[in-house]
């Protein structure tokens, strides 16, 4: 089976603005991938390139083993819901399902119908009269009913209330499990990603900072607290992602491919949110977002350890 996404030195410029830089990724099949990063990091740009809506300025990309702009056959394999959940205001809910059926060879009419009923949407209702959250639910329903091999969702739950968010994510997981769909979704809500994603990509300042299976990433990272010391006093083989020092104490977030060696410190695994924040802070504090997945950077020793 082909990789969900393979990118090599991918870059995108909008005029002078570098939106994506030197992005190399290989995401194996069979995953629900969470793409996380701060505002303006380049997430939408990467997702638009992946679904063929934008051409990269530099580098190469393959999605499901093909170029994203590979014609109608490729379009049928990939479902995409943009951040602004595009729907047609003048059409009814039922019209959207009819349109979906006409445009998509693999359309699952039963699934679409059942989901619309489950959501309590009136098929005759004009979409311009739906709330933002309802429009988002409709757009997501159309994308899922297309039964794509890969579903690309740009902040799919941003406009949903907490209950609807939980319901949608549960529905997404059920449908993914039932139909073996790969998913690539962006979100600012790490707690949501934690619930559904088994692969994580952290993008900051247009560059990939971290990518890998969530379970492996969590196993490889520790927060260690010890008496104040320099990064260079730590054993070799530990990559320092984040560091903070007080007068007497140092706290490090470290990555170790092997088991963490014993030392005169207390160590604990990180929650996913803390792991993501450590990489985000590293990129922002070094002001270049460029240390990359294998980079080694220390933050300035100021403030209190957390
Ligand atoms: N059409 C455009 N023209 C010029 N600059 C753009 C355009 N689209 C995006 N950008 C810039 O590219 C950078 C990346 O934008 P992008 O929308 O990919 O970020 P994002 O991570 O999706 O942000 P957010 O989380 O706020 O949605 C930003 O600095 C943005 O201002």
UniProtKB/TrEMBL annotation:
Family matches, as SUPFAM superfamilies: P-loop containing nucleoside triphosphate hydrolases
Keyword annotations of the record: ATP-binding, Nucleotide-binding, Transport
Pfam families to which the protein is assigned, alphabetical: ABC_tran
Transmembrane feature ranges: none
Domain ABC transporter stretches: 5-230
Region (Disordered): 286-306
Single GO molecular function: ATP binding
Xref: SMART domains: AAA
Family matches, as Gene3D superfamilies: P-loop containing nucleotide triphosphate hydrolases
Name of the protein in question: ABC transporter ATP-binding protein
Species per Swiss-Prot/TrEMBL record: Dactylosporangium salmoneum
């Amino acid at each position: 089976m082909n990789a969900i996404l393979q990118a090599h030195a991918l870059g995108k410029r909008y005029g002078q603005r570098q939106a994506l830089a030197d992005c190399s990724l290989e995401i194996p099949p069979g995953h629900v991938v969470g793409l996380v990063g701060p505002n303006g990091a380049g997430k939408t740009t990467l997702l638009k390139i992946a679904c063929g809506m934008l051409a990269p300025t530099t580098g190469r990309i393959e999605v499901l083993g093909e170029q994203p702009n590979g014609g109608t056959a490729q379009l049928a394999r990939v479902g995409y819901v943009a951040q602004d959940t595009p729907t047609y205001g003048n059409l009814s809910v039922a019209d959207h399902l009819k349109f979906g059926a006409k445009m998509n060879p693999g359309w699952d009419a039963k699934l679409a119908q059942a989901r619309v009923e489950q959501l309590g949407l009136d098929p005759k209702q004009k979409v311009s009269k739906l709330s933002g959250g309802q429009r988002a639910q409709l757009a997501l329903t159309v994308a899922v009913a297309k039964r794509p091999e890969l579903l690309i969702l740009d902040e799919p739950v941003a406009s949903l209330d907490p209950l609807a968010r939980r319901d949608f994510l549960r529905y997404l997981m059920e449908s993914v499990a039932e139909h073996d769909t790969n998913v690539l979704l962006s979100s600012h809500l790490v707690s949501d990603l934690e619930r559904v994603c088994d692969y994580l990509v952290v993008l900051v300042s247009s560059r990939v900072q971290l990518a890998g299976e969530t379970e492996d990433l969590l196993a490889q990272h520790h927060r260690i607290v010890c008496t104040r010391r320099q990064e260079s006093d730590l054993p070799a083989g530990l990559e320092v992602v984040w560091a903070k020092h007080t007068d007497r104490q140092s706290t490090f977030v470290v990555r170790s491919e092997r088991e963490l060696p014993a030392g005169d410190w207390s160590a604990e695994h990180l929650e996913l949110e803390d792991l993501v924040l450590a990489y985000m802070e590293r990129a922002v504090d070094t002001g270049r977002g460029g240390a990359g997945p294998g980079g080694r950077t220390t933050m300035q020793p100021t403030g209190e350890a957390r």
